[in-house]
Every structure is written in C-alpha cells, then in structure tokens.
Write a structure and sequence with these properties.
10-stranded antiparallel beta sheet; alpha+beta; 14 strands; transferase; methylglyoxal synthase activity; Rossmann fold; 2 domains; 10 helices; globular; Diacylglycerol kinase family enzyme; Tumour Suppressor Smad4; kinase; 319 residues; kinase activity
Length: 319
C-alpha cells in the first residue's frame, strides 16, 4: 500500500475538516494512513518535508498558502517524490498557473492519491546581503525586487486575512507615495552588463497573479526559461500605460484568437520591458527588499537567479 505525508499549515487550513477528508480519501483509494506533519512559526515546512522524505513516503501534500508550498517544494526539488497541492490562503499562485481546482479539498486529495505527475521548472535564487552572506532559495512562481517586495512588506496581515488580495492594493497605494527607484546592473545569460533604472524587476517561472492578472503572458512553468519584466514608469502616464498593457492587452486581448489578431506585434510600452533567459544576475547600488513567491527574504545587494528545468514533480489530475 502507498503512503502519503501531508505538511499542514494549521493557520491556513481547518485541521479537523482536513483530517476527516483525508481519512475518506485514503479509504477510497486504498492508501495507508497519511503521515500528518504541522508547520510551526519556527519551521514553516523544511524539517517536516525532510522527515517525510526520510520516512520514504510516495507523495508529499502541501496544505497551506504559497509560503508553505514554496518551502515544501524547496526540499523536494531534485527528488523523485512528487508534490501535491491542497490550496489554501490568499494567492494559491502555483495552483492557479497549473489550472488546478481551488477550494475543493476532496478533489485535491483525489488528485494527490490518483493523479499523474508533471515535471515543472524551479527558480533558484542566490541572495547576497553585502556582508559576505549568501542564501540559496527556491521559488515556483516569481521573484521580485523593488515595489512588489515593498508592497508585501507594507501589507496589513489582518486586512489580508479579511479581504484577501485586495489588501495588496491598499499596500501598493502606500508604497507608490515614495519614489522607489532602483539603480541596478544586470547580466543576462552571461552576456554584457547593462545599467538600469526601474521601480521593480520581477523574474517569473509562471505568468499569472491573483485576480487572474496575467503579468508575463509568455511564461510557461515547464519551458526551461525565466520570463522577466522590468517596470520603469517615469510618471503617472507611464503607470497608466502599464495598466493598459497588463489588464487590457494581456488580460483581455491575449485570451482570445480575435483579440490576438487585433494586437500589434510591434507594440511596446517604454515603461514596461520584457526579457527572457535561463539566468540573470542583478546588482543594486543599495540594499533592496526581495520576495520569493510572496515571502520576504530581507534586503539584498545582489541576486543571481537561474532556472532548474524539470526539477520538481507535481501531481495533477489525469487527463
């Protein structure tokens, strides 16, 4: 008989309901009793996932928000043990990008016990704090430097729990009151070094955000490529052009064949630039906040981000 482990964030889930649904799913599919491992404030999933691997389980289920999923995936990267998602929390960004069902515990567990495995890429970020300290972290959706990281830092947790992603809108209103300009040097795929002034740089393994916002329209979770967007508006008009690009062109026109025909192939927005590559090195003239999949990792002076192709197996529904 097969056995699963589940890494549960008790703050983001209803443990009693989940235990009942889990027992029913085990009975339906003939699996052994699942190894139940709860995250803590001190350990958001690293030690729990290592314990699951040591026990030789057949799959690890992440039951929590994007932070729990990222932490579990970081430990599973490069192993033969697949990750199953039981979406909870505000974002559920990887689940959204994989078109998985949200808010359906029974369906998520059926997928975990009787789904198919899909290999996806993992982003790997080496973060340097300017004091000879280097931290290597994985991410599944996006890494961000600039306004998006400051927005997360400014988000009210209580408002986020009550209003969901709307809390980010409130936070970004506060962040935009400052100039927030980054002064960077970057090198893409070992090429020449460029200088850059921008408000934010986002490096994506996936393209969609909350509220069905399509930020990186060409991004695919299994193409072995990082998609990068640089936002550098000079004024309110620049922000307006970015909004039109994201919400109208990416969010509406690109989603239909008719809309794609209406788009101009040569239409570029000066305030918003796209790059592609397998590795990018960013160096800032001052320490800046960085986020990975919505988790803050402090201030960094430089970061090297690369893609690890097909490094994680994720359980998805069978065709």
């Amino acid at each position: 008989m097969s056995r699963a482990a589940i890494v549960v964030n008790p703050v983001k889930t209803d443990p009693d309901r989940l235990r009942k649904a889990l027992a029913a799913a085990e009975q339906r599919h003939g699996w052994e009793e699942t190894l139940w491992l709860e995250t803590t404030a001190e350990d958001p999933g690293t030690g729990q996932t290592r314990q699951a691997l040591e026990q030789g389980v057949d799959i690890v289920i992440a039951a929590g928000g994007d932070g729990t999923v990222r932490t579990v995936a970081e430990e599973l990267r490069g192993s033969d043990t697949p990750l199953a998602l039981l979406p909870s929390g505000t974002g559920n960004l990887l689940a959204r990008n994989l078109s998985l069902t949200l808010d359906d515990v029974e369906h998520a567990l059926d997928t975990a016990f009787d789904g198919a495995d899909r290999a996806i890429d993992v982003g790997v970020a080496e973060l340097r704090d300017g004091r000879d300290g280097t931290e290597r972290r994985a991410f599944l959706v996006m890494a961000g430097l600039g306004i998006d990281a400051k927005m997360i830092a400014a988000t009210d947790d209580d408002l986020k729990a009550k209003a969901g992603w709307v809390a980010y809108v409130h936070a970004i209103g506060k962040v935009l009151r400052d100039k927030n300009e980054l002064r960077l040097r970057y090198q893409l795929d070992g090429g020449r070094t460029h200088t850059l002034h921008a408000h934010t740089v986002m490096i994506g393994n996936c393209g969609s955000l909350q509220a069905d916002i399509l930020l990186l329209p060409d991004a695919a979770v299994d193409d072995g490529i990082l998609d990068i967007v640089v936002l550098r508006p000079e004024d309110v008009l620049g922000w307006l052009r970015i909004a039109v690009k994201i919400f109208w062109e990416n969010g509406v026109l690109r989603r239909t064949s008719v809309g794609r025909r209406l788009m101009r192939d040569d239409h570029e927005v000066h305030a918003m630039n796209y790059l592609k590559g397998t590795e990018i090195v960013l160096t800032s003239n001052r320490p800046e906040q960085v986020e990975l999949d919505g988790d803050l990792f402090g201030e960094v002076s430089s970061m090297r981000v690369r893609v690890d192709p097909g490094a994680l197996r994720v359980r998805v529904p069978r065709e």
